[in-house]
Amino acid sequence: MALETGAQTLDPEAMTAYTDAQVAALAERLLDHSLPKAEWTHAAHLTATLRLVRTRDAGLERDLPEIIRRYNVAVGGVNDDASGYHETITQAYLTAIRAFVATLPPGLGDGEASARLLATPLGDKAWPLGFWSRERLFSVEARRTWMEPDLRGLDQAPPFLAAARLD
């Protein structure tokens, strides 16, 4: 599938970087539910969240779950005990992305910020498994509510995460 951004069409699986305009379009398409499900990749999740943190962060820990749930339903998905929205994963990444954004130099564009974010350990879909056991992370309880890591605390993450614990 391709990511349409005005005159350009991009393959999200081959994408390693977004332009500022593509980042903005990605977040808008998430919010208005026009982003095709096939384009809602791990990189797209992180990049859209990065944009939302940078543009409308107040209350995002409350709003992002509903944004994702509504998007999932709009593209034919479900939010149940086995698929769709996952509270622990979403809140962990939101916390990490907020901490990452706090380290960015002033004036850095969203495209470059996204490239830098995707180059961190967060760019690896397995990142949460360094903190949560597979059993705990993929439990129904972790999908429904925040669960603390059981392998090591987020304070043992890269330096940009150390100050951003979910207490």
Rounded Rg: 15 Å
Strand order in the largest sheet: 1-2
Look at the helices and sheets and give the structural class: mainly alpha
Uncertain segments of ≥5 residues (pLDDT<50)?
Answer: 1-15, 162-167
Helix content: 40-55%
Tell me the domain tally.
Answer: 1
Given the structure, what is the number of helices? 8
Basic shape: globular
Can you summarize the main beta sheet?
A: 2 strands, antiparallel
What's the average pLDDT? 88
Strand-residue proportion: under 5%
| End-to-end Cα distance | 39 Å
Annotation, overall tally of beta strands: 2
Order of helices and strands: EEHHHHHHHH
Which descriptors apply to this entry?
48% helix; two-stranded antiparallel sheet; mainly alpha; disordered N terminus; 8 helices; globular; 167 residues; single chain; disordered C terminus
Describe, in plain words, how this protein is organized in 3D.
By secondary structure, this protein is mainly α. It has one domain (3-162). Helix content is 48%, strand content 4%. It has eight helices and two strands. The radius of gyration is 15 Å and the shape is globular. The N and C termini lie far apart (39 Å). Mean pLDDT is 88; it is low at 1-15 and 162-167.
